[in-house]
Design brief:
The longest helix is centred in the middle third of the chain and has 19 residues. This protein is elongated. It contains 9 helices and 10 strands. It has a 6-stranded antiparallel beta sheet, covered by helices on one side. The protein has a 4-stranded antiparallel beta sheet with strand order 2-7-4-5, with no helix packed on it. Helix content is 36%, strand content 17%. This is DNA-binding transcriptional regulator AraC. Pfam families: AraC_binding, HTH_18.
Length: 319
């Protein structure tokens, strides 16, 4: 890595990425920086204009310090940082720590990686992610090491294999970020979902659902959208279409009967909604779905009292 305010001679390039003059002109370079107090690497990395590619690193021992003044923060074992292109680099060993070891990967991303490179927790555009337990620390440490070993192997495909491993690392980091972790549903929203599903063939209104879960209609509407991501009417339509697709595929129930079962008295209207959501008509969907799993035997089939087992708690039909 490049020391503070030290520019290498234009005619020379270092072969060691920890020392001055390394060009970082590859798609991926990886390593570990073992900084020990008063050692040869004990200097501040100071790149006011950042780099052309990204750097992701993870502290594995000691403590590091990033930035000075009000923006300063410290990193400890299990903390990861993501520096995007042209982001200011200013970091080194924390003064109170005798050492700072961090694994790092410099890379130029594939275009479709963009969503995985937008870390929400940032200071001056430097992304931060703290691994919450030892199992994850071990997992990511092993991934960093595997990427480092792979890109050094000297095989024709070493760089591509290392990039594939890096892709896995970035996906895992995205997956475990606090903002991407699944959030448990509020019990009242869950009960509203179950109530809607139990009455999927009926036109129950927001007021009735809210009364059932002991909330005002406005509060339920706000809470539902916040937790589920869509409003109640859209969610109910989603569940109706999911159930209709299931019945079209798994039974020979007439389409008109299925339309009524999932809450559409007008078969033509049901077909328009189905085509808009699925891309084909109900009859076309049935033709391309293969043989039904169950025969249509009972003329009075009615949800949820059917000869086939369809969950009645609503949760299995979440999109």
């Amino acid at each position: 890595m490049q020391p503070q305010h030290l520019d290498p001679p234009a005619t020379k390039q270092s072969l060691d990425p920890l020392m001055p003059g390394y060009s970082f002109n590859l798609y991926l370079v990886a390593g570990i920086t073992p900084i020990i107090e008063n050692g040869p690497l004990d200097f501040i990395i100071d790149r006011p204009n950042g780099m052309q590619g990204y750097i992701i690193n993870m502290t594995v021992a000691g403590q590091g310090k990033v930035f000075d003044g009000d923006d300063a923060f410290y990193v400890n074992p299990g903390d990861m940082l993501l520096f995007s292109p042209e982001t200011v680099h200013y970091y080194g060993r924390a003064p109170a720590s005798p050492n700072w070891y961090h694994r790092w990967i410099y890379f130029r991303p594939r275009a479709y990686w963009a969503p995985w490179l937008k870390w929400q927790d940032q200071t001056r555009k430097v992304g931060k992610l703290s691994l919450p337990d030892k199992t994850l620390v071990t997992e990511f440490d092993e991934l960093f090491q595997q990427i480092d070993r792979t890109h050094r192997e000297g095989r024709v495909t070493s760089e591509e294999l290392a990039i594939n491993l890096l892709e896995r690392l970035l996906i895992r980091a995205y997956e475990i970020s606090p903002e991407n972790l699944p959030k448990p549903l509020d019990s009242r929203v869950q009960e509203a979902c179950q109530y809607i599903t139990r009455h999927l063939g009926q036109e129950i209104g927001l007021e009735e659902i809210a009364r059932h879960v002991c909330l005002s209609p406005s509060r339920l509407a706000h809470l539902f959208r916040d937790q589920v991501g869509v409003n109640i009417l859209r969610w109910r339509e989603d569940q109706r279409i999911i159930l209709a697709k299931h019945l079209l595929h798994s039974t020979r129930t007439p389409i008109a009967r299925i339309a009524g079962t999932v809450g559409y008295e007008d078969q033509l209207y049901f077909s328009r909604v189905f085509r808009k959501r699925v891309g084909v008509s109900p009859s076309e969907f049935r033709k391309t779905s293969g043989e039904p799993l169950y025969p249509y035997r009972t003329p009075n089939m009615d949800w949820p009292h059917m000869d086939i087992e369809v969950p009645d708690n609503g949760m299995e039909f979440y999109l």
